[in-house]
Fold this sequence. Notes:
By secondary structure, chain A is mainly beta. Chain A is 2% helix and 42% strand. Chain A has helices spanning 124-127, 190-193, and strands spanning 2-8, 11-17, 24-29, 34-40, 47-53, 57-63, 71-72, 88-94, 101-106, 109-113, 121-122, 143-150, 153-162, 165-169, 177-178, 201-206, 214-218, 221-225, 233-234, 243-249, 257-262, 277-280, 288-290, 308-311, 318-322, 328-331, 339-342, 348-353. In chain A, the strands form seven sheets. Chain A has a four-stranded antiparallel sheet with strand order 3-2-1-28, with no helix packed on it. A four-stranded antiparallel sheet of chain A has the order 4-5-6-7, with no helix packed on it. In chain A, a hairpin with a 7-residue loop joins strand 18 and strand 19 (233-234). Chain A is globular. Chain B is of the alpha+beta class and 85 residues long. In chain B, 18% of the residues lie in helices and 26% in strands. Chain B has helices spanning 10-13, 26-36; strands at residues 2-5, 18-21, 55-59, 62-64, 75-80. In chain B, strands 2-1-5-3-4 form a five-stranded mixed sheet, covered by helices on one side. The radius of gyration of chain B is 12 Å and the shape is globular. The relative contact order of chain B is 0.24. The mean pLDDT of chain B is 92. Classes of the chains: A mainly beta (354), B alpha+beta (85).
Amino acid sequence: MTEVLVGTKKGLFALQGDPGAPFEIAARAFAGEAVEFAMRDPRSGRYFAATTNAFYGPKVWLTDDPAGEWHEAEGVALPEGGDDALKRIWTIVPGEEDDLLYAGGDPGVLFESRDGGLHWELNMPFWEQPTRPEWGPGAGGLCLHTISTWPGDPSRLALGISAVGVWLSDDAGKTWRHGNKGLLARYLPEESREGSIALCVHNMHRAPKRPERLFMQFHGGVYRSDDAGESWNDIGEGLPSDFGFPLVVDPDDPDNAYVIPLTADMDRVTPEGRVRVFETRDAGSTWTPRGDGLPAEDAYLTILRQAFGGTGAGAGMQLYFGATSGEVFGSGDAGATWSTAATHLPPVYSVRVS
Amino acid sequence: MASVILRAPLSEMCGGRTHALEGATVVELLRALESIHPAVEGWILDEQGLIREHINIFVNGEHGREDTRVDASDRVHVLPAISGG
């Protein structure tokens, strides 16, 4: 039995089922609220959800039972006495130490919890970056959406922010530096590109078995880094479009990654009315469409940044993604074939598999 | 003491709809509410002490802001705005 946590515009849905058949809704929580992200920490089994209540603001919640009572985490706020308030939490990820978790949010902020998610603190060195006054948001806000840990080494972190590029730390977040070499912001005038930090990273994932390798979906461009995020090479050739949001990496194969292209930044739907996941098995040299079982005509879907996740590895890897049209699609054979896991949900914001 | 009147889910978090609180301004009343019921910290006022964008405050039926003066006989309603999606 697989559990898929689906964050939507109107609540969290915990789906349960097996690949190849419709899933059942085992639990719904936060009815009526936007659930930006939800995940289950594999170490503790604890569930986390990031909500943005239209009236009462962003919160992080945790529970041991998604159908039961959720508890609000403490400390998920910006320092008092400033100009900014926290707008949204975009991601929550386990760290590389016991009980350590990270959360990223808008306006470009990183939180840390060292007690399994009950209490959180703002990472002050990142909050106090001298260039912060110059940071600008993407269309979704100034969102810190990617926190990429290094397996077995808690000192090394990579962050992805729309639209302030890649940030790297080798000392567990005490100091930060850019990792933007090679990224090309085609949306900027040519004369403005050199040295600009207005870099709209859409998503980024590390290959756990070769952690110096990361894949990135950029705002126009798909990239790979083989030097831990210091520099990037465009690997988007062969895709119908190099615009898109979500990205998944096979945890066992550093050459294997998946993207879901959208037509363009001005037309954020699946190209040609066909829903297809594109897979590379050679680190981006070539891409193969994987659409068997997905809508193949008159299907103009939008798949958002966090709405693609997987579990397992290799040929039996399970993949799931959701669309703003309320459908969730799944594959139990690493994308070779797909089926519809759920329909008629609210617009899907995030998909994670536990 | 002024009366602060809440709706769900705030009323559930604070154990009732109506709360008699001390304060000379709206923000002082809301801070007093938070001190008695810490669960609502961050729900009405953001971390900068500002009323959240989609919360409406009415003092005796008139729209109020953080610094609106309140008297002991005033009734202060905390309402979700007619907005959102």
